[in-house]
Amino acid sequence: MIKGKDFRGHAHELVDWIADYLENIEEYPVKSQVKPGDIYEKLPSRIPQEGDSFQRIMQDFNNIIMPGITHWQSPNFFAYFPANSSYASLLGEMLTATLGAQCMKWETSPAATELEQKVMEWLRTLLGLPAKWHGVIQDTASTSSLVALLTAREYHTDYSINKRGFSKSGSFRIYCSGEAHSSIEKAVRIAGFGSENLVKVETDEEFRMEPGALEAAIQEDMDSERKPLCVVATMGTTSTTSVDPLESIGKICKKYDLWLHVDAAYAGSAMILQEYRWMTSGLNYADSFVFNPHKWLFTNFDCSAYYVKDKEALTKTFQLIPEYLKTKADKQVNNYSDWGIQLGRRFRALKLWFVLRSFGVRGLQDKVRFHISIAKDLEERISAEPDFEVLAPRTVNLLCFRYHPNGVTDEVKLNDINERLLHQLNATGRLYITHTKLSGKYTLRIVTGQTNVEPHHVERAWDLIMETARKLA
């Protein structure tokens, strides 16, 4: 058992380990190289009868756990979207863990509630969001989108489904593009609508939702006596970071009185740059909006910024106050346990506050702008190679491309070549990239968004991609 008298020494050891790890992270293979079951088989089948020492626990951590870790904080991590960290965020997270506060209500830690309110106002200004929106920190964008659908459901049924269930409510319809994140369909299922009532609207040649197709789908449902309820527009799709035309979609939502939720989980961070404020066009029509500071604003996972136009609609959907949770301050403050699914809440605002204060506006803008410039340079490199092709327009710092050797025209064969290329690259441990499919084409994705990525990391990655691809061919 680790005792209080030993804590200080072990904490110093652990901080040294953390600092060494972050300084030497590029020495690890980016993607874990273990096989399924490797870690499980090395772990004891039972809890030890007597407590182990800190030294033995750390020995097993280094020998058993670390080989099974994929290093998301490596600057050679180009996969998915990043789950970024920073020294400032890490320090804030240490304090959060130390305080161990359960911040469900204002009374359980007033500073947690009031700091969250303030940093959400800061972020609202930083991104140029509507000034009357109200913000709350959720754990993930997946949860935020579920919260949006539940709020839309209750708002448009006068909060009756929470009381009586779906029995007499009819068939509600939810709309998104075929490029929307899978969390939207999961939210549709959890909220009780059913996957069959999720309408996936056609996209254009740049993978953006087609407003005309959206309106046609709404009108068809109304003619069939179904009930259009909510549209989910995406600002930065997962596959390509395409941005749905919010202005046109918003006008359609207003015309038919539909809830508009905007999922900006990754690309929303780009709105801190004036040159990307074009993405805010149409946001005035939105009823809810989410983006993730834990993706591209250098704040440890998890930290999702969720905004609503109508605070009362949100709280009426989720508020449930038994006697033992009533306090005399309830009518004067925000109790964020009433703003989402969870009752218990971590002090997430603290690490975000550390990041915003440590970087400042200029530091955040410089970092995001730098990541985009690296992607632009890589785009030019890819386009210059006759046996590679870019498969989608670059919006921010995600590039979608494939290897297309001369003379190969069969799409099945091209898909196979690029899938093998992906696996061979990741097996080297020198980088980590992932894939998607665009119009049936197996597409490689590379995201230059990890906190500490530099041009030389991307140059080495691109050299490795070209070398491996041409050997494969």
Q: What is the correct CATH architecture of the largest domain?
A: 3-Layer(aba) Sandwich
What about the largest sheet? Answer: 7 strands, mixed
Strand content: 5-15%
CATH topology of the largest domain: Aspartate Aminotransferase, domain 2
The total count of helices amounts to 15
Helix fraction? 40-55%
Multimeric status of the protein: single chain
* Class by SSE composition: alpha/beta
Low-confidence region ranges: none
What's the N-to-C terminus distance?
57 Å
Q: Which strands sit side by side, in order, in the main sheet?
A: 1-7-6-5-4-2-3
Number of domains: 2
| Shape estimate | globular
Overall description:
With 473 residues, the chain is an alpha/beta fold. The protein has two domains: 264 residues, Type I PLP-dependent aspartate aminotransferase-like (Major domain) (Aspartate Aminotransferase, domain 2), CATH 3.40.640.10; 113 residues, Aspartate Aminotransferase, domain 1 (Alpha-Beta Complex), CATH 3.90.1150.10. The protein contains 15 helices and eleven strands. The protein has a seven-stranded mixed β-sheet with strand order 1-7-6-5-4-2-3, sandwiched between helices. Strands 8-9-11-10 form a four-stranded antiparallel β-sheet, with helices on one face. Strand 8 and strand 9 form a beta hairpin. Helix 4 runs antiparallel to helix 13, helix 5 runs parallel beside helix 13 and helix 6 crosses helix 12. The longest helix has 36 residues. The model has no long low-confidence stretch (mean pLDDT 96).
